[in-house]
Every structure is written in structure tokens, then in C-alpha cells.
Amino acid sequence: PLAEAALATRQAARDAQREKYEKQVEDYYAAVDEDGNGRLDRDEIGALLKAITGKAPTRQGLDIVMKAAGGEEAEKAGGVTKENLLRALKKCDSITPLAQSREPSS
Q1: Helix axes of 59-68 and 42-53: crossing angle, nearest 10 degrees
Q2: Are strands 80-81 and 39-40 parallel, antiparallel or unpaired?
Q3: Binning pLDDT at 50, 70 and 90, where does residue 40 land?
Q4: Up-side HSE of residue 10: CA atoms within 13 Å toward CB?
Q5: CA dihedral defined by 20, 40, 88, 26, rounded to 10 degrees?
Q6: What is the pLDDT of residue 106?
Q7: Residue 80 — φ and ψ, nearest 5°?
Q8: What's the pLDDT tens digit per position in 92-103?
């Protein structure tokens, strides 16, 4: 029972942390959507990742995120939606390093 309680506590903490990261991505998403179309192009995603992590993503890292977020198809559609970006960051396991990132400035 004690081990189960500890496991449940860790899972709850991970869930809360993931919600925090998703909120952070959403906050930055709105801030970097320069044209306000609800979709981010490659440059805007690079700006979002830089804002969150404090450093510009590598070309390879940005390629991986873009591919996971829909790749050329998303770019042809005008950019990546917030939902697809969140899914891509989870898929790339990029959401975890965001734990050490800074808070968005209001």
C-alpha cells in the first residue's frame, strides 16, 4: 500500500508538471503567432522553443519537431496548430526538458 501511494503521488506530480508545460507552450504559442492565424510556421516555432528553453533550437531539433507536427503538410496548410505542436513535443519527448525552462513573461 505504501509503494502504491508513492507511485500515485509521483504520477500526480508528473501530471501536474505536464499540465504546467502545456500551459506554458500555450502562453508562448499566442505570443509568437505573429500573424494571428492560429498556426505557427517554422520560424515562429523556433521562436517559441527559444522563448521556452532560453536558447535557439538546432536546425536538426527544429526539423524533428516540424516533422512530428505534420511536416510539409502542415507547412502547406499555413503552419502548425497548437494541438499538433503539443502532440509533437510529447512525441519528441521535448516536453520533459521544458521543466527546467523559464516562465513566460506577461
Answers
A1: 110
A2: antiparallel
A3: very high
A4: 6
A5: 10
A6: 45
A7: -100, 130
A8: 765 445 444 444
65 in Cβ contact with 49 (< 8 Å): yes
Instruction: Please check the confidence at residue 105 and state whether its pLDDT lies above 60.
Output: no
Grid cell digits, residue 25: 507552450
CA nearest neighbour of 43 among 66, 25, 69? 66
Instruction: Report how far residue 40's alpha carbon sits from residue 36's, in angstroms, rounded to the nearest whole number.
Output: 9
In this structure, the dihedral spanned by the alpha carbons of residues 99, 29, 58 and 73, taken in order and rounded to 10 degrees, is 130
Residue 41's closest CA among 62, 23, 27? 62
The answer to whether residues 42 and 61 touch, using CB atoms and an 8 Å cutoff, is no
